[in-house]
Amino acid sequence: MSTALRARVGALPAAQLAYRGAVAGRLAAERWALALRRPAAATAQGRILAYHSVGTPSWGVNDVRPRDFERHLQLAVDDGWAFATPAAVLAEPARKQLALTFDDGAASVLTHAAPVLRHHGVPATAFVVTGWADGGHPDGAADVLDWAGLAQLEAAGVTLASHSVTHPDFGRLGAGETQRELAGSRRRMEQVLGRPVDEFAIPFGQSRNWTAAAGRAAADAGYTTVYAQAVDTRPPGTVPRTFITRIDRPAVFRAALAGAFDGWEEWYLPAPDPAPQSR
Ligand SMILES: [Zn+2]
Question: How far is the CA of 111 from the centre of ligand 1 (A)?
């Protein structure tokens, strides 16, 4: 679950637990139903996967167990997928190529995913929340990488790109905040990395989390590619990514690769109050 959502639900532990259970339960039911209902896609088509953490159980549905992650890679190989960068997938969409991306800069990506990726020579991209790398994660710094950790991730072969400064919902942001989140994260990353950063992944990444104005602001800030976390329902002008979740054991993962969830979006509890970033 996202930190912003957790903040919106309120401070009561009981409410948080109930929310977490409801999200996980409904998400599992929906994904299993879709996995069983929809036939596999007939034609090979490139796909970009959106992971978050790999071995951070407190991240709920966004977390994938390390052993499940390894199973995913094996399944993809068994099913004839070739691993590639997102750019290669986009350049030849008809090829059966699979790109891996990881949002939020979770420390477990360095500890659990990077060694596996490196061992198998699998490319990957990590989308970094620069304010969290600077120590500003609301839950503390333990679960996310700082810049030193991100440098290790890059040294392990993972490409770093931007995921905003504070992980806001761009669907609710004003023009000034939108510009600061986009340009500020790009500037901070380029300052640390010493190279251009042209790719951006939308926080939450669903159809309601982006606007046409945000798209124009992203282009103005210098981004050439903006990734969603949805496929058929993604905002116009964004690149599709397939969200991979904690419940994606082999059958569900295989269904995700075959396109069973392309019309699906992660379910959110309606927010009881305006989001903090819109105040
Ligand atoms: Zn994110």
Answer: 19
The rounded radius of gyration (Å) of the Cα atoms in the chain is: 18
**What confidence tens digit (pLDDT) does each residue in 254-267 have?**
999 999 888 877 65
CA–CA gap between residue 215 and residue 248 (Å, rounded): 31
What gap in Å lies between CA 170 and CA 58, rounded to an integer?
A: 24
Q: Which amino acid is at 258?
A: A
Residue 43 C-alpha to ligand 1 middle, in angstroms?
A: 30
Q: Using the CB atoms, write b or e for 222-237: b if 16+ within 10 Å.
A: ebeebbbbbbeebbee
44 alpha carbon to ligand 1 midpoint, in Å? 28
**How many A from CA of 253 to the centre of ligand 1?**
20
The whole-model pTM stands at 0.83
User: Which domains can be identified in the chain, with CATH numbers?
Assistant: 3-265 (3.20.20.370)
Residue 201 φ/ψ, nearest 5 degrees: -110, 130
pLDDT at 248: 83
